[in-house]
Amino acid sequence: MNNSSQLHTFHIPVMGVAFTVDTPSKVAQYGIDSVVSILEDELLERLRKHFSTNYNIPYSPIEKTDEDYRARRITAYLNTLNEIVTKQISNLRILPMDNEEIKKFMDLLPTESPLKKSYNALSSLEGKELEDAIQDVRKQISAGSIDVNIMTKIDNLAYDKAGNPLPPEYSAAKAALRGFAKSNLTSSIVFSAGLNPKLYSYCADFEDFYPDANGNLKKKIILKVSDYRSALIQGKFFAKKGLWVSEYRVESGLNCGGHAFATEGYLMGPILDEFKNKRNELQETLFNACNEGLIELGRAPFASTPKVRITAQGGVGNTSEHNFLLKHYELDSIGWGSPFLLVQEATTFDMETRKQLSEAKPDDYFLSNASPLGVPFNNFRNSSSEELRKARIAKGKSGSPCLKKYLQYDTEFSNPAICTSSVKYQYLKIKQLKQTCETEEEFLMKKELLQQKDCLCEGLSEPALNVYGIDAPNKFGATTVCPGPNLAYFSGLHSLKEMVDHIYGRINILNQVPRSNLFINELKLYVKYIEREIDEVSKKLIERKTSYFEKFSANLLSGIEYYNQLIDKKESQAEELFNGMRQELDELAIRIKDLQFIKVPVMV
Fold it and tell me: What confidence tens digit (pLDDT) does each residue in 174-193 have?
């Protein structure tokens, strides 16, 4: 199924490996777009078997001994999801207009939705006019898009049983891309974590990424980006190969869940403003480059410029922020991620962890060193995986068994590479630190930083299997959860309707924790981040040049100036959003100017 009508003004981004792995089967029937991680083929295969039984879909196992098993498993799982959602929508379209499921579909839509208005108008019609109107409503009922995500950094080589490397197209990300490309979905692939030239180029091997005779794309490309420059560079890379990027998904560097790809102090507001001002320029530049690429390949060019969607996500917490982003920055959709972790109807993981999140305090969320990728990782102090990690350290067994091997990238002690959260790496690194650290204090600090590494492959995927009572192959026995800090302002467990009603301003489910707006919250996170970096440099845990801190703080102050000007222009139109913002900006500006980064022993 494919949602071409964009019935909602929000989407649910990918979360973890398992948390949104089957979200389309839960929410696509209500016209809501969501994103599935296709990293973990073992997880997808086991879920496919489970869903095939539940939905009476024929199932034939795909074993690890089978040729191209990883890509084939992903294709099969996505086709199963598509079949489930197709049946759901087909069944919905034939129901009487007063059926509870039809009512739920319509109730969830935005108040200003044309479809909702058409549905509500049915009560005033009769006869042939009513029959025609009902048929029109039925036609407009469509599914949310089943989109997929590939984290471009996770593209390690695959090996055969003898330990010999397989051809490059069998690497983790390329096999996942092939799995999506060969599925029967009409939807989008979201590339996150930066440019991967070999992976991006591989898209050109699949016909579905090119326009058909009518200029339509069966498979679309979405790029998750941190700024306009990144969007332009990556967009040009695709365009030169005749490939069109249909959407740029702007994500807050720090005010998001999962891995936090911090910018050098560039803030969401100014970034979105640049996209707004240069949107036409971006579209036309890439349109010309893409058509040149298509002609060079002997393909028909686009007759007219395809639409470029600009969306944003990260830290949005209420309807005033949601609507302001849509209207002021002319966005097409807003991503709402972490709050949906409190909605069992939308996300999949164990109830114990969900209950912990529902009762959590702001200090329970923190930016950690847990990721083996070396990228800051949003973490939750009360998770069972944190408990397991600490228990292993207490027993003198630092690190985790490395069984899935997706994050094996470090070659300091071994070639082929090993994972920095593995038992082997932690043992060797701690042994090295004992020999190289000048003081006991330095050793203990670096050891603690090292031991924050956790097994994300297991902790982010196994919870979905546990929910459905499916045997987990490696028995990790813990949940890693990675919510954004914005979840601190939500408490309790909520229905899908309650969360959607909150997004559209029909109810308010924020808790009583004092909350600044999303712009201020992001700015606070950046100030805290640079303060932490300065502290780590002073302790010789990391190395940074003075120029790095100078640029970072200058960008933050420039962002503050932008927000002050925005308040001057828009305060009367969005009083609730900007209330108290100027004072907080002044306080944060003072804090930035007081940073003592020149005096710390940085690399020069």
Answer: 999 999 999 999 999 999 99
Token representation of residue 446:
């670096």
Helix (H) or strand (E) holding 200, with range, is helix 197-202
Q: List Cβ neighbours of 179 (8 Å cut-off, separation of 6 or more).
A: 38, 41, 70, 71, 72, 73, 74, 75, 78
Least Cα distance to 379 among 452, 481, 478, 529 occurs for: 481
Strand bridging mode 365-368 / 187-192: unpaired
User: What is the per-residue pLDDT for 5?
Assistant: 63
Q: Is 257 left (phi over 0), alpha (psi -120 to 50) or beta?
A: beta
Structure confidence at residue 160 (pLDDT): 85
Residue 219 · residue 177 · CB < 8 Å = no
pLDDT at 343: 98
Return the half-sphere exposure (C-beta side, CA atoms, 13 A cut-off) of residue 66.
10
Q: Give the model confidence (pLDDT) of 427-439 as tens digits.
A: 999 999 999 999 9
39/50 Cα distance (integer angstroms): 19
Coil, strand or helix at 99:
coil
In DSSP terms, which residues pair with 248 in a beta bridge?
223, 310
> Tell me, what's the pLDDT at 598?
47
Instruction: Give the HSE-up count for residue 161: Cα atoms under 13 Å, Cβ half-sphere.
Output: 4
Q: Which of 222, 374, 232, 373 is nearest to 311 (CA)?
A: 222
For 302-361, give the secondary structure using H, E and C: CCCCCCCEEEEECCCCCHHHHHHHHHHCCCCEEECCHHHHHCCCCCCCCHHHHHHHHCCC
Pairing type for strands 333-335 and 146-151 reads unpaired
Read off φ and ψ for residue 386, nearest 5 degrees.
-65, -40
Tokens of 409: 């990238």
What is the per-residue pLDDT for 162? Answer: 83
Rounded CA separation 15/483 (Å): 8
- Of 509, 523, 512, 521, which is closest to residue 559 (Cα–Cα)? 523
List, in order, residues 6 or more apart from 307 with CB less than 8 Å away. Answer: 246
Cα distances from 367 to residues 444, 483, 488, 526, in angstroms, run 20, 10, 13, 11
Q: Which residues of the chain have pLDDT under 50?
A: 1-4, 598, 600-604
Looking at residue 361, its pLDDT comes to 96
Distance CA 342, CA 496 (A): 9
Non-local (6+) Cβ contacts of 394 within 8 A are none
